[in-house]
Design brief:
The complex is a heterodimer. In chain A, the strands form 2 sheets. Chain A has a 6-stranded antiparallel β-sheet with strand order 2-3-4-6-8-7. Chain A has a 4-stranded antiparallel β-sheet with strand order 1-10-9-5. Chain A contains 6 helices and 10 strands, in the order ααβαβββββααββαββ. Chain A has one domain. Chain A is globular. By secondary structure, chain B is α+β, with helices and mostly antiparallel strands. Chain B has a domain of 56 residues. Helix content of chain B is 34%, strand content 28%. Chain B is flat and about 40 Å long. Chains A and B meet through α1, β1 and α3 of A and α1, β1 and α2 of B. β1 of chain A pairs antiparallel with β1 of chain B.
Chain lengths: 175, 109
Amino acid sequence: MPVTDSTTLNALVSQPAAALAGTDLQIHLPLTRVLLNEVLAARPANTPVRELLIDPNDRNRFRVHLTAQAPIVGTVSRQILFAPGMPVSFPDQPWLEFRIEEGLGFFDRSLISVLQGQIERRLPRGIELSSKNLRIHIPGLLTHLGYQRLVPLIQSLEIKSEANRLLLNLHLKAE
Amino acid sequence: MHPVLQHLMDTNFEDLSGSRVDGRIAVSDDLINLGLHEVVAMLTKSSAAPAGKTESPAPESTPTPYDSTEKKAATPDPKALLRKLDVEKLQYRTETGRTVLEIACSVRK
């Protein structure tokens, strides 16, 4: 399936291991709070999420301010504190995990458990939300987006938090 | 233009400060040749466009005429980002069947 109008980019995405054989690249990308919130503000309009803001702090935690239209209970607003988990490395550790440390009460956790099936159907393939964590299966999500052949190139992917920034570390390698 | 790219341009790429790329980028001859052909095709097509341009009917939902006072979306200026780069290493070479770039650079804080 073509991803862009460019034949060159489509060739790169369809056969990245061959096109980039010999590449070994470390990328360190600090994403400021302002930039992250610009990205979140550019989300599609037709979602149940009314407000979504992120606030990274210096204890390797980040807080998400969320207002959304939820099934049964209507509009809910929460401030949820996430802790990034282990780095992703292939093929052993494909999950990018964010542990929920604060912000969900007993009722919220029970509701998420009850509505687990509905939540799963609304989220893109590869993204899971439970009462304890938010998990992203990187190969699953990339496959869902049409970039499955990029998966073997990702040696590691890590997200950390510091004051006002999320740090993204990515190691790409094509043998 | 995508609002995030517009934001980066409006803020002189300040939000990318501290970014760093380090390592080796290798690109196959096949991909480079494909890219060259695409660039040539694009240049040929764009130079021929004015002669072959045909006027298309206005879409039904275009109520607002062009406003010449409206701020136009600028195209990204590579110089603005390049001025912020610290290039520690940039070595180009070719090997059989591929082009290799050894690179170490960061965006100045």
